[in-house]
Structures are given as structure tokens and as C-alpha cells.
Amino acid sequence: MKCKFVTRHLTHLGIAAVGLGILYVIYTAYPWVCTREQMKTITLELMENNDLEFGKTELEFGETKPDHLTFDAAVKNYEADFKETFIQVPDDKKFLIYDCRDHCGGWGDRIKGMVTAYLLSILSNRTFGIHHSYPCDLSNYLVPNLINWNIEDSRLTSQSVHTIDYMNDHIEFQGRIQHNNFREYKHDVIYLKINQDWTDQLMGNRIAKDVLSLLQKRTYSDIFRMVYFGLFKYSDALTNAIQDFISKSVGLNKLACFHARIDHPGNKRYETTDFGSVWTLLRRFNLTGRYKIVVASDNTEIKMFASALFGNNYIARYWNVGHLDDASSCEDFLVTLTEHSILMRCDVLVLTASGFSYQAAHFRQTSRNLFCFFRTHGAYPCKREIIKYLYGWPCGKKDQFCY
Predict the structure, then answer these.
(1) Quick check: helix, strand or coil at residue 370?
(2) What is the Cα–Cα distance from 205 to 228, expressed in whole angstroms?
(3) pLDDT digits over 20-59, tens only?
(4) pTM
(5) DSSP three-state, residue 291
(6) Phi/psi class of residue 240: alpha, beta or left (left: φ > 0; alpha: ψ in -120 to 50)?
(7) How far apart are CA 55 and CA 67, in angstroms?
(8) How far apart are CA 99 and CA 107, in angstroms?
(9) How do 393-394 and 401-402 pair as beta strands?
């Protein structure tokens, strides 16, 4: 009833833009008021209000520095938060290893898996490690930052080993997370295959209330950003690729970016003709003369259209986004990580239904000029903190949520 009350009053007042902000505050401060599925429903209802039509929305063209010039300084803050939050010294004789030595989803899915696995290692008091060799060794491009997750094989031999595969068969375990005592697992080494985000359920675990107490009031997007930049820093190869892109193609301009995931013909997420609202939005930034346009897509037709529409302001290099499970070389992996690192530095970001988009939005410094595209609603301003509830779906038992 409380959630229906919130819905009725926000929509009847006709304050969709304000309503989304209020809804976010309500959910983070009082999560028992609305379930996750109710959050998604309310948000879409608010988006239908004319106040949120992008043509009437006050866009921010301000004279601030481009985000790519301030991003690295902001990362230092995320690292400081990580050191303050994760102070527990784990058992150095027991290990939880994120396992990606075969097909394990796209880059967005892999980020979800690694962050969830790290939080599980804290709850189980185990040393965290990553074995990622498909399609290439992760440490070629992302190296350990504040903790050493690159565990030598010699430390894992002659130990009792158990492999858990939750790539597909995860719903039953997801329903038990809040009640599990993860420290009761007997094996010395656990290899975990996973590509789901379980932060909501993990935060409800009784052990988490003690060992992860500082995370309880953080949004899941802030948790992901903090853990990612606590675990990883760029290798020289990835740093050089990012700097090369910015110096040669961007300079002191700002970036307006669109990630358009179409997918293969038998499983299309969108039609190439769906994005009229996005092109109109990007043209408004393009006309200021201060933006370069990036369109990252797995579809050649979309990139050709963007090139014709934006001319010399369109940046064509690097942006051949395919699914990481289809990659065949280290070069493909480097391009994927470069693309993702650029998207998180964009001053304007329009995202579609793709984990690649979601994670780039999570890692941005702000929700300023962030837009979510829906086939039935067009491109609308949104907040990085509620993307999960916009694009996720209900699964398993009542009020379980997959993302």
C-alpha cells in the first residue's frame, strides 16, 4: 500500500523529473516501501510524463572541464573508499577464485561476476583471486591494485578444491544467499563461475551486517565502482590505448557517447530504426561545437549513419563492439576494455539494454547527462543508481531480481 501511495502521488502531481529523484531517495533510505519490480514499474510510469520528454528537458551544456580530464583524479577517491571499507584481513590458507577460463559472458557480465565473487570472499573470510584467461589473460590489461588477486598456482596445489558453476543454475542459490553462513564451506579452494549481480541479497546476509557494515548505506552502483577500482588499475598497454585515443581523437573536447547493442539477427534487441530520439539528442550536443561524438555498436549500419550525420565530429576508430565470448584474440580484448574505459569517461552517455552500457554508467563520476533508452519510451534522463531496477527482471522466488 505504501508503494501505491507513492506511485499515485508522484504521477498525479505531474513531476516526473523530480519524482525520479524522490523515488531514488525513498528506495535507498526506505527499501521496504517498494519492491524492486515496483521500482521499475513506477520509474517507467514517471518516464511517460511529458516533463521528461528529452525535447523539454534542460540539458547541461556547462563550461565544466571534460570528464576525461578529471576522471583519474576521481578514481583516487574510489580507492580511498575501498581501503576504508574493506579492512578485514582474510584467511591466507583458504581461497575463493573467480573462474573465467572459458565462455563466461560479456564484459558487463564478467564485471558483475568479479564484484559479486569479491564480496562473497569477504563474507567467507577467504583470500580472493581471479583466474581469467578467455579470450586473454586479464592481467595483460588490468592488474592488481589495492589487493593482489593474481594468486600463484603453487599456493592452490595440494589443497582440497571445489568448483561451483552459477553461470546458469543460480536462482536457487540466489534465494539462499541471505541465510547462508559462507564460512562453513570446508574446501580450501573454491573456484566460482558466476555472472550475476547479487549485491542486494549479499547486503541482507547476517554476516554482511558486521563485516560489510560500511556498504549498507551505499548504492549498488557506488559499490561496483569502488570495488572495480579497488581491485584493478590499468596496465601500461591499456593506459597507452586510452591516452592514444584521447590525444588523437578527443583533445580538449567533451564526449557525447551512445552505446547501441543490437545483437545478432535471430535475437535482436532493437531495430536500427528505433533510435530517432537518440540522434536528435546527440545533435543538440553536436551543435554546440564542443563535443566529439562516439557511437559504440555491434551494428555497422548504425555506425555508418552516425558518420554521415555527425561528419568530422564523429569518432570512428576502435568502436567495433562485439560480445566478448565471440572474441578470438588479445587484440579483441584490448579493444573491448578500451571502449569500456572511454564510455565511462563520456560527458554525455546514452545507454541501451546491455551490461556493457550499465557498467560504464555505474563507473561515471555522476548521473549528469546520463540517458536511458527504451524502445517504447525513447531516450530519457536517468540516474546511475537505479539502472539496475530499470533494466533488470524478476526471477525465481517472489521479490528476487536478476540483472
Answers:
(1) strand
(2) 22
(3) 544 544 444 444 345 555 655 655 555 444 334 433 445 6
(4) 0.85
(5) strand
(6) alpha
(7) 24
(8) 14
(9) antiparallel
